[in-house]
Amino acid sequence: MSTVIYPSPIFGPVHSRRLGLSLGINLLPADGKVCSFDCIYCECGFNEAHRPQLPMPTRQEVAEALEQRLLQMQAEGRMPDVLTFAGNGEPTCHPHFAEIIDDVIALRDKYCPEAKVSVLSNATLIHRQQVHDALLRVDNNILKLDTVSPEYIQRVDHPQGTYDVNLVIERLKAFQGRVIIQTMFMQGSCNAEDVDNTGDEYVLPWLEAVRHIQPRQVMIYTIDRETPTQGLLKATHEQLDRIAALVRAAGIDCSVSY
Length: 258
Description:
Blueprint: E1 10-16, E2 20-26, H1 59-76, E3 82-86, H2 97-111, E4 116-121, H3 129-135, E5 140-144, H4 150-156, H5 165-173, E6 180-184, E7 186-190, E8 193-194, H6 200-213, E9 217-221, E10 232-234, H7 237-249, E11 254-257
Parallel strand pairs: 2-3, 3-4, 4-5, 5-6, 6-9, 9-11
Antiparallel strand pairs: 1-2, 7-8, 7-10
Helix pairs in contact: 1-2, 2-3
């Protein structure tokens, strides 16, 4: 079992299945993981196995490192398609997330104005007004909703605090369409429990929530790298295509990463 712990505060660029040439912005420590979820499929491993000793990078460190990397990429004659907040956990956990968003937008405008600013978040902290408002300022506000089943969320996503999926759905609706919903579909088992969420039992209630949220787009994907839990399996192309067709039939754009 291998896991990925990303450098901080800047890593890449990497070729993203969903976003293109992506320069990563990691607001979490470089030696461990900080996340409000502890997903069984996380490529960074489980929280307990990767407790960091280093602090989160400061706002100034992020801005300086990003500018230096953009200058380097400019000199190399290749610029990123997207600046992506991702890395070792939940980016909105950073106490200066909102201010860093503003810094990144300013640097994007200066060096690579055609690039998009994206945030990959599990949506656990969107109740914070500063986080909500900051996410409205980025190009791709990509927020996770794996299911609407509280039992499945506890079994797979392992929230590290109180998590009410119905409240999260209401807060996703509050973005008034300026949001992209990201959902992991998979098969297999964990601790002898089935974790397949590709059937109608899970898909149809999730689709109803998506209809209520009315996002700009839905991104569905499946396992692509090694996971900390053994027994997890990729969803098939046929399963993902069926789910995508249901989303599109509801009048919502949907992308699929196999």
